[in-house]
Amino acid sequence: MAPNQSKKSRETLTARRARLRKQGLLLIEIWMPGVRSPAFAAEAHRQSLAVARSRQEKDDLDFIDAVSDWNYE
Hints:
Layout: H1 3-22, H2 38-53, H3 57-68
């Protein structure tokens, strides 16, 4: 990448972040598990089995459905 392109990219990013801050938004950075990792898949499977085997399975699944049904329109 040419030095001017790098500087322009940096300036564009800085300007964008300034506009977002003006809108009252805050930049945050988080680390989360990689959803493609075998460990993530194993843990997701373990948790889904725990819900399926639970005495309150219907209540648990109703709760999951309720909080998962977001209206993005």
